Amino acid sequence: MKYIISSLLLFAGITSFAQSTKTINQSGNPLFPGWYADPEAAVFNNKYWIYPTYSAKYKEQVFLDAFSSDDLTNWKKHEHILDTAAIKWANKAMWAPAIVEKDKKYYLFFGANDIQSDNEVGGIGVAVSDKPEGPFKDHLGKPLVDKFHNGAQPIDQFVFKDKDGQYYLIYGGWRHCNIAKLNKDFTGFDPFDDGTIFKEITPDKYVEGPYMFIRNGKYYFMWSEGGWTGPDYSVAYAVGDSPFGPFKRVDKILKQDPTMATGAGHHSIIINQKKNKYYIIYHRRPLGDTNGNHRETCIEEMNFDAQGNILPVKITKEGVKAQKVK
Ligand code: FUB
User: Fold this and answer.
1) Ligand 1 centre from 95 Cα, in Å?
2) Per-residue pLDDT tens listing for the chain (326 residues)
3) Which of 116, 155, 291 is the pocket-test mutation for ligand 1 (most atoms within 8 Å of CB)?
4) Pairing state of beta strands 218-225 and 36-44?
5) Nearest in space to 211 (alpha carbons), one of 151, 171, 183, 259
């Protein structure tokens, strides 16, 4: 009996070692177990946070979990921070969260219902909480964007804060991307000077998953290309002088590596200004796995050349070195 138990323990030990690439000082990839896609990364109160899509079967994507870490290496799971049970208009496909802290509140923007036309209920919603780990409640009681504008499916939202403090919603699936000026309490939009609400900023080859950040005064606009269920999903970028572009596609910087993983895309960025480090957090599919929803959240360092071009990212199983926020 003793022999059987110790053999079982030994077997369990070997299995977990074989499945994990984590070492004490290295994050390993994936960052945490489970199918999690479209990771939105943030830093709040000296902790790293990741808010991904729960990438189960379509109809089971009815809640969001979040993950927090002090060092990019050890991650704590916060379950069901948002649930469709708390959003009366949402019932499936809770996707691609985007989070922002404003006036001591945390606003979680999410897609729900994967609407295919203006006749369906759903789109982009906003939830709010006093804490990054939720629980989040519906901020509006209805979607913030519930129709197609300029051809953009209302999914894949990102909230961008410009230098002057103005927040913008940048979003869109189906190969179109819009930008809109959020009002002060995130209950709607302020029109642009010409009276319009949604301006299209779609670059060449854009599909979905927009992201924006400022570096050395330039606006870096990034997005996903290809189909998210296939191997060729990837990330490309453009650089502009304002959040409105024009954005001329520069190149792809993240894609599959047939020796490592496929379908690498839908990302976000953590910037550590003090240490001048940029991390790209993205999802990818294990080699040989063709199930569209089998996506795992991973991390790599992202670097620039002397001209400010983003260098191609190498996808790894080691991930990044442990790094505290401060
Ligand atoms: O996770 C659902 C969808 O897959 C997202 O909205 C897309 O960006 C793609 O990653």
Assistant:
1) 7
2) 333 333 333 333 333 333 455 667 999 999 999 999 999 999 999 999 999 999 999 889 999 999 999 999 999 999 999 999 999 999 999 999 999 999 999 999 999 999 999 999 999 999 999 999 999 999 999 999 999 999 999 999 999 999 999 999 999 999 999 999 999 999 999 999 999 999 999 999 999 999 999 999 999 999 999 999 999 999 999 999 999 999 999 999 999 999 999 999 999 999 998 899 999 999 999 999 999 999 999 999 999 999 999 999 999 999 999 999 99
3) 155
4) unpaired
5) 171
Residue 98, in any domain of the structure? yes
Does residue 95 line the site of ligand 1, with CB under 6 A? yes
CATH code of the domain in which 218 resides: 2.115.10.20
Mutation choice for ligand 1 from 35, 208, 262, 283, CB with most ligand atoms inside 8 A: 208
Structural domain boundaries, residue 223: 2-302
**Is the peptide bond between 191 and the residue preceding it cis, with omega within 30 degrees of 0?**
no
Ligand 1: centre distance to CA 47 (Å): 25
Whether the predicted model's global pTM rises above the 0.85 cut: yes
What is the Å distance from ligand 1's center to 6 Cα?
44
Give the C-alpha separation, 265 to 235, whole Å.
5
Domain count, the chain: 1
The two three-digit tokens of residue 70, written as one number:
């002090």
- With a 6 Å cutoff on the Cβ, whether 96 touches ligand 1 is yes
Closest residue to atom 2 of ligand 1, CA basis: 95
Q: Report d(CA 268, CA 101) in Å as an integer.
A: 16
